[in-house]
Amino acid sequence: MSKNLKTPFRYDVVGSFLRPEYLIQARKQFEKNEITAQNLKELEDKAIIDLINNQKKAGLQVITDGEFRRKSWHLDFMWQLNGVERIELSHGYYFNGLETYPTSIKIVGKITGENHPFVEHFKFVKQFEDKNVVAKQTIPAPAQMLSELFRKDNIENTQKMYPNLDDLITDIANAYKTVIKELYDAGCRNIQLDDCTWGMIVDVNYWTKKVGTNVKVDSEAEKYLRINNLAIADKPDDLVITTHVCRGNYQSAFAATGPYDRIASFLFPKENVDAFYLEYDDERSGNFEALKQVPKDKKVVLGLITTKKAALEDKEKIKARIYEAAKIVPLENLYLSQQCGFSSNEIGNKLTEEEQWAKVALVKEIAEEVWKN
Q1: Is residue 207's pLDDT more than 70?
Q2: Which long-range contacts (CB under 8 A, 24 or more apart) does 50-56 make?
Q3: pTM of the predicted structure, to 2 decimals
């Protein structure tokens, strides 16, 4: 692996890819106890190897496992922390007319992060690094876990197990520190924190439904900042940590609408990450004005290509938007990707695999024309 390969790249991906149908069916069989965990792993390994080969063929400089070992982008990570278990609810979240999986997390003991399975998942991908590509590990942000523990179905148990919020924040942050250290010791140098909490704050209607009218944005934003920054404090200098700010991505549906203005003064100058992967694929994201809050030492990955629709974007229009953003953030600090992953959950967005790779190719083509290097 080249030591110079660090995320983000001029043409990049958020991380998840469409699962092959045989893998979706295998997970269903596993959940019905029709196949063993080893059977499922062997099929996951095969699918991930094929995916990595396709990422390399596409000319990407970053490889991921496509989140193929997960059913859900965030919950699979959370319920494999120590002191946390999976629970089934009577309902999921509601995404623009669709209901998500009715699963969540429950605290059953002190939260710690030792021996997280994602470390072994990363090691599997890392073996395929070469001089042209580097492996990236995606995990949900600590703030995302804190938010999940305070949904209406969870809050009573959360406060019972952790009466003191500071203790909860400290333990979640320390659990993440442990996972991050174990990933680092396994050779990981690129970690992406996926975070919907900011995307939910920007939507006034969603925010009101979730927390009511008595909770101030400032207090919630400071809480999310605190837990994220605690988790990544004192990271090694050669470890790149980025974050993807999402407004929801479930079977081509979205959860939230709103520009970044409401959170820009908190997130951009204060979260101690190296780069922000931002959704800008449609009018729900607003204009680029909020980017004025991005410090000069931070990078911005413009998610201008949507994963929610199969139709390819007009190349010249995308280039024009990049140059528009460059009036605020220097072009050398800008990068290009899709707005989100192709399959944040097991059932992905409404594209074919061929259409998925066409989107990846379009990002690469545009980036090479804009940056010419």
Answers
A1: no
A2: 50/20, 51/17, 52/125, 52/128, 54/357, 55/13, 55/133, 56/132, 56/133
A3: 0.94
